[in-house]
Amino acid sequence: xxxxxxxxxxxxxxxxxxxxxxxxxxxxxxxxxxxxxxxxxxxxxxxxxxxxxxxxxxxxxxxxxxxxxxxxxxxxxxxxxxxxx
Length: 85
Hints:
Layout: H1 2-31, H2 39-46, H3 69-73
């Protein structure tokens, strides 16, 4: 009698797993379309109303001065060949 009870429990568990899997798949298929929109339409809606680019005027470092001291003091700048060869 104990083996009959184990069979009933095992069949019940298998049936519950199969039913849960089938319902989960059905839910996934039907609700997949209403999730996140594609990236192009999301990017289009995110950039609506944004100010246009104002070009180089927005970059304060566009015409920055050269303040690197090593670029002016390198004695090997004009050397065309390697002196250590």
